[in-house]
Structure formats: C-alpha cells, structure tokens
C-alpha cells in the first residue's frame, strides 16, 4: 500500500539579517528538516496512529503521501506509484481530512456538497445513495444534512467533513487531527465511525493526533515522530503488554509489619509501615509470591496498578531522546 525508503523533506527559509540585507536580491537561507531519512511500510488493512510534538513532521508526511509535496530525498510509493506523478489517479483511491481545512462548500447544504463530490469522483447514483444513507446514519447527520455548511457548529462540520471523505469509497484514509477542538460527543461519534471503517478490514487508515487515547482506541499500530525521525514503530498490543509489566502491586497488611517476606529480596520493592509496594512484577510470578506472603500475614487489601499507555509511550520516547544525544 505505502512504501517509504530513506525519505527526507526539507524547507528553506530566509534568515533575518541587518537593515541592508532587506535590499539584497538573494538572501541567505537556512534548512529546516521536516523529515529525516525515514523508512516505513504500511500494509492494506492497517490502522496506524501517527503522533509527535508540534513540528515533528506528521502533517508533512501526510502531504507527501497525498502527493501535495515532493520529497527532498528518497522515495515514496502509494499503490505502487510515485504520488506526485500519479496524484490524479491516486485521488480516486484515497481521501484526506485535515482538521482545520474544509472541503465542503460554505454556502450550500451538506447534501449538495456531497452531490458535487459525487460528480467529481464519478460515483453512480445507486452507490451514492447507499453511501450517503450509511454516512448519515453512523455520523448522525440527519438533523443538519440540508443546512448550509456555514451554519454548522465545529463538531457538526467535522462530522460532515468526515462523511464527505467517504463518498467515493476510498481505499486509503488519511485523517490529520480530525477530533481537534471537538466536544466529547462529536469526538465520540467520529471515533466510532473510524472504528466501524476499521472493522470492514479492507481500508487502510492513518490517523494523526496529539491525543494518545484516540490512538489506543482505534489503531493497531503506532508510529511516533520526533524532529523528523521515527523513534517508535510498534503494535499497540506490544505497548499495552509493556503497560502490564510496568506496574506496581500494593499490599496492605492488617498488622503494623510483615513477616516471612524474604522472597521479596529478588524484587524491587519498598515497605512503609503495613504497606508493601512491589514494582515491575511479572504477573505470571505474582500468584506464587502472594501465596508466600498470605501464608504468614493477615492481608487486608491487594491493589494492582498498571502504567497508562501514554506513560509507557512517554518513557520510550524519552529513552530514545537520551540515546540520540
């Protein structure tokens, strides 16, 4: 579906100089690297979350995939073709939704905008009717389907935008911050729609966002960019497994102290009065450990706290930054 080899993208901006530099025909420029020698392969049917700080290169990568931008170095192929040379044909097979840009016509209704897109993408009347019916149902567009786009709230407009992206039944879906600034109900509606598309299994989705919980909820793979470099590329399930091992078990005793806990010498733990906290324990060994502690102590409470998904990602991110110093 998407193959990226040694891809780099740089921008050049004029440097500020002294007063006289403003009268020169040529100005000194400095290079800003948006992407730096990245390699990725995304297969058909994957749902990939793309995250990173502002300026990490997320939007640049999306624009390179669509063919809006040309690479400075390296190669990118979408559907087996260079997207800059096959942009028109690729546009019939992909869609892109940018959270702060609108493809719907401002002064006509949502439905009329959809009809316009039907003509642009040459969608048959029968297919158009089936898709609009499904889109309206899943995204709850019925109450404002025939209102001018300019009258819609941000959440309504974003739902309508997402619906517009699916009029031509694309194979590749690029979503750049689709939930930015939305209220909780609009956000939930959009995420539910993305999950429904994912469940069909024949669509490839790339979702960029700052909200890690969105990635965990709808994606099966996460890619983290930092200063134009790929620093994490892993399955969501693998990160979630790390959440379970990056844990702490809190054991509260009825008495003020514990006895017979020599077994804890092989673990990282701390004791504070009648509370033991054990860190980073494999859950396979936990039953045996608890059996030993229970045998000689009157345990009142056991609590297991796993690290949150975003915290594990943050640790991996920080570790990679230190390695690259």
Automatic annotation (TrEMBL):
Domain of life: Bacteria
Span of domain ABC transporter: 2-252
PROSITE patterns per the UniProt record, alphabetical: ABC_TRANSPORTER_1, ABC_TRANSPORTER_2
Record Gene3D superfamilies: P-loop containing nucleotide triphosphate hydrolases
Keyword ATP-binding among UniProt keywords: yes
InterPro entries on file: AAA+_ATPase (IPR003593), ABC_transporter-like_ATP-bd (IPR003439), ABC_transporter-like_CS (IPR017871), ABC_transporter_ATP-binding (IPR050763), P-loop_NTPase (IPR027417)
A Pfam family that the UniProt record links to this protein: ABC_tran
Transport recorded as keyword: yes
Keywords per UniProt: ATP-binding, Nucleotide-binding, Transport
Molecular function terms from GO: ATP binding; ATP hydrolysis activity
SUPFAM superfamilies: P-loop containing nucleoside triphosphate hydrolases (SSF52540)
PANTHER family given in the database record: ABC TRANSPORTER ATP-BINDING PROTEIN, ABC-TRANSPORT PROTEIN, ATP-BINDING COMPONENT
Protein name (Swiss-Prot/TrEMBL): ABC-2 type transport system ATP-binding protein
Gene source species: Anaerobranca gottschalkii DSM 13577
């Amino acid at each position: 579906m998407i193959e990226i080899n040694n891809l780099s993208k740089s921008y050049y901006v004029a440097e500020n100089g002294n007063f006289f530099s403003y009268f020169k025909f040529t100005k000194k420029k400095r290079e800003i690297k948006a992407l730096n020698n990245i390699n990725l392969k995304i297969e058909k049917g994957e749902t990939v979350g793309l995250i990173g700080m502002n300026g990490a290169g997320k939007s640049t990568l999306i624009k390179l995939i669509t063919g809006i931008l040309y690479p400075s170095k390296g190669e990118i192929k979408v559907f087996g073709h260079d997207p800059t040379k096959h942009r028109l044909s690729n546009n019939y097979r992909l869609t892109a939704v940018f959270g702060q840009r609108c493809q719907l016509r401002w002064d006509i209704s949502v439905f009329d905008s959809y009809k316009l897109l039907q003509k642009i993408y040459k969608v048959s009347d029968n297919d158009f009717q089936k898709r609009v019916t499904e889109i309206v149902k899943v995204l709850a567009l019925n109450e404002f389907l025939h209102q001018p786009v300019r009258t819609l709230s941000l959440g309504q407009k974003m739902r309508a935008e997402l619906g517009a992206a699916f009029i031509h039944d694309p194979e590749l879906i690029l979503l750049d911050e689709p939930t930015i600034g939305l209220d909780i109900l609009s956000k939930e509606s959009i995420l539910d729609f993305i999950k429904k598309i994912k469940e069909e299994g024949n669509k490839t989705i790339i979702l960029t966002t700052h909200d890690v919980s969105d990635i965990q909820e709808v994606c099966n793979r996460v890619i983290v960019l930092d200063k134009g470099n790929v620093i994490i590329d892993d399955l969501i399930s693998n990160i979630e497994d790390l959440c379970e091992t990056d844990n702490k078990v809190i054991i509260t005793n009825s008495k003020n102290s514990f006895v017979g806990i020599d077994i804890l010498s092989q673990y990282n733990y701390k004791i504070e009065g009648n509370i033991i906290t054990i860190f980073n324990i494999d859950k396979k060994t936990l039953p045996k450990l608890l059996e030993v502690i229970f045998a000689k102590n009157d345990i009142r409470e056991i609590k297991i706290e796993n690290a949150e998904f975003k915290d594990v990602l943050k640790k991996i991110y920080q570790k990679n930054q230190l390695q690259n110093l």
